[in-house]
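Readers of this paper often ask what the protein records in our data store actually look like. Such a record has a labelled line for the sequence and another for the backbone structure tokens. The tokens are whole numbers drawn from a learned vocabulary of local backbone shapes. We quote a single record here, exactly as it is kept in our systems:
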Amino acid sequence: MKHEASQMPDAFLLAVIFEGGIGLLAVGLGWLLGYPPADLIQWDLDSVIWGVFATLPLIGVIWLAIRTEWRLLRHVLQVVKDQLLPLLSGCGPIKLAIIALFAGFGEEMLFRGVLQNWVADFYPKDLGAYIGLIVASVIFGIVHWVTVAYAVLAMLIGLYLGVLWMLFGNLLVPALVHSLYDFWAMLYLIGHAESQQKNS
């Protein structure tokens, strides 16, 4: 049994490699298409503050999912508990924070920084901005397909992050929101699942 356990892939390492790969893909595609995503990140205190505040509605979604009887949110929560949390339960807060940062910045550079802008530029300015938003959000949902409900929720979150990019024009805001949300969701849901196991 010990030999089998040692052969199990490290979930933290796999997550960092995967999400880091998305970031590298974003940089490469951005260079090829003329939309370098790193140039869209401006490090300033106002954007950091906005990023923190803009995370609160997404935290509310998790809070609602745990307390609501709405089938969509309950189903998504169950999928997360059954399929995703067991992979991450051995990771402490520092590892979860690193995964969240890689995911938040890597995915936002790809989906908002490159894809949303690239699609938008195919159309007249006002129309293109909304088409880019929709296309990037739909693809974001598809890439996060675990179940239909999970993909739909991911698409809605993608829409929210895309709107933040449109409003602030600084990729730091949606990247921070994405990172903070992922970190809080993983930390909270792992703790919630563990407390349920203890009480059962």
Summary: DSSP finds eight helices and no strands in the chain. The radius of gyration is 18 Å. Confidence is low (pLDDT under 50) at residues 1-6. Residues 137 and 191 are 29 Å apart (CA to CA).
